[in-house]
Write the structure tokens for this entry.
Amino acid sequence: MNTEPLVSVIIPTYNRPEYLRYALNSVISQTYKNIEIIVSDDAGNPDNYFVVSSFADSRIKYYRNESNLGIAANNISALTKTNGKYIADLNDDDFWEKDFLGILVPYLENNSDTVVAFSDHYIMNDQNEIDLEATESNSKLWKRDKLTKGIYMPFYDIAIVHRSIPIVMSALIRKSAINWDNFPLEVGCVYDLWINYLACCSGGAAYYYPERLTRYRVHSNSESSQGRLRVNKGMIFCYESFLQDNKLSSLVPELKKALAYAYRNAGSAKLKKKKTIEARRFFLQAIKMRVTIDSLFLLLLTLIPYSLSNKVYFIVFFMRKVKTRIYLTQ
């Protein structure tokens, strides 16, 4: 009888069967074996089922939604089916190194006050090739290059300000420490940010293991390459919610900065679609949170004809790129 704690691995999926095959294989190949794998198919094509059934592994449980629920609801659906002491969420287009669970599970087992254990990760392309330059840039972007191995408590700043914890695909979560009922659908495709919020609000600690134990795939069909408006609407909902939480009062300036950035990006997406009035509303909200030259400039573009504003935007964008290039070569 296996005395190791059960780990529930959820893999929400839609229409990426070939990537799903790699993700599943990386979970099945883990050195840590006491796992259940819950594949939640969001009403995708039949190929998803054929991929899952081809593994013939009793630890895999396949569920298919009758209709497309969307990213957040599909994740919630998968979470409700978990039985493990710990939960790991893996994107269907990413995968783990074989010792991912083997390294992180023992730490959580030996430290009952730790809510989440996480690692750094690689960036890879659609051919499973690691991009080392992009990997280093990604670690710096999310400030993991500044983190040292060990405990962070409290960890509000690294979870929801710097967003250093890749909670989906590179983290292991203590299931009992989080209020999973507090999972609004409005978070949409940034459900990972909301899980980070739930984790840091638990009062427990986070543990960082600085080696790269997983691989994040960047490709043309990834959510990170599509749906910028959806992403920023989810960000707006999250950061507006965070600002209402008294526990986060010390982080208000940083949260307002993040919210302003999300408003500005949402406005830019609307402006691209020639929806000037809607874009203007987003830019005004951005300026209300934090006045920046960029937001003021974008607001100005909504006050002139689109044909002219489009030309002005690209001229300024080009000049800023040239200026940056000159600066970097000095």
Notes: Residues 318-330 have pLDDT under 50 and may be disordered.
